Amino acid sequence: MRGAALIVNARSRTGEQAFEEALELLAALGVDVGASFPVHDPARLAETVRAAVLEGHDPIILGGGDGSVSSTVDFLAHHHSTLGLLPLGTANDFARTLEIPTSLAEACETIARGNVVDVDLGLLGDNYYVNVASVGLSVEATRALSPFLKKNIGPLAYPVAAVKAFIKHQPFVGRLTFPDGDHAPVEYGRLLQLAVGNGRFYGGGMVVAPGSGMDDKTLDVYAIVLGRTRDLFGVARYLRSGDFVKSESVDHFRTSRVVLETEPELPVNVDGELVAYTPQEFSVAPNALRVIVPAGSTAARYDG
């Protein structure tokens, strides 16, 4: 191995100032950083991670938000390199799930002194993701989530964007089928949103579903039906805790594979990025990624 590679998305919310500070902190903690890259063009982040993995660097210390992780995880999945994360984004839901601290000093301490665990990844076709893939309202919210909002109000940008999205959102027709036969097919005439979650958090701290986790080898699927306005307000009220799945307007399924078809065909939001269109198959990739977490974290375990 050629030491760690520090790769920081310098365009992330706090990336520019964090790069040099992280280098100093890691060196003081005795972490051998063999290569370091401040990436100012996010489009080059994935190729930079890929090159570091192929060169044998371990761990890959990535500074960025959920989008940075999701865009690079394809090169880390089922590979020898371990991910060390410096949460520098707006939501940091992947880090939140794994109890990785958002303080740069504490995150560097985690990389130097933490434990390695295995976590599941979601799959949209052959594209890996870490938190959630969704269709409907979240797509409109992503479009409304401007860099200005993220930079100036942080995680509060997500509910603000959701309100803007709800005003213009149109319901859609959806059909779910389960290739493994663990649930009967289901059709919906007026869907507000459908999401397939792998991690525990999304959208700046909202819970995917009660009991959702990152090493349970299943996906949490929920469908929100556009019903009465008062029912939707009830859903919105309990989004933070995950208890929204108990609403009459929400169906919740736990599965390892699901196929989604919609009318019309719709874009799919994967960890905050629009990357594909329906129809799509979603599945879980068990123990696909090795990550360094704090020594006291109980969010996942190492399965070898």
TrEMBL record:
Phylogenetic placement of the source organism: Bacteria, Bacillati, Actinomycetota, Rubrobacteria, Rubrobacterales
NCBIfam families hit by this protein: PRK13057.1, YegS/Rv2252/BmrU family lipid kinase
Keywords: ATP-binding, Kinase, Lipid biosynthesis, Lipid metabolism, Nucleotide-binding, Phospholipid biosynthesis, Phospholipid metabolism, Transferase
Needed cofactors: Mg(2+)
Name of this chain's protein: Lipid kinase
Domain of life where this protein originates: Bacteria
Ligase in keyword set: no
A Gene Ontology biological process term: phospholipid biosynthetic process
Gene3D superfamilies, A to Z: 2.60.200.40, Probable inorganic polyphosphate/atp-NAD kinase, domain 1
Matches recorded under Pfam families: DAGK_cat (PF00781), YegS_C (PF19279)
Stored PANTHER family: SPHINGOSINE KINASE, SPHINGOSINE KINASE RELATED PROTEIN
Organism listed in the record: Rubrobacter marinus
Signal peptide: none
Keyword DNA repair: no
Gene Ontology molecular function terms on file: ATP binding; kinase activity
InterPro entries noted in UniProt: ATP-NAD_kinase_N (IPR017438), Diacylglycerol/lipid_kinase (IPR005218), Diacylglycerol_kinase_cat_dom (IPR001206), Lipid_Phosphate_FormReg (IPR050187), NAD/diacylglycerol_kinase_sf (IPR016064), YegS/DAGK_C (IPR045540)
Domain DAGKc per the UniProt entry, residue ranges: 1-128
SMART domains assigned to the protein according to its UniProt record, in alphabetical order: DAGKc
Family: Belongs to the diacylglycerol/lipid kinase family.
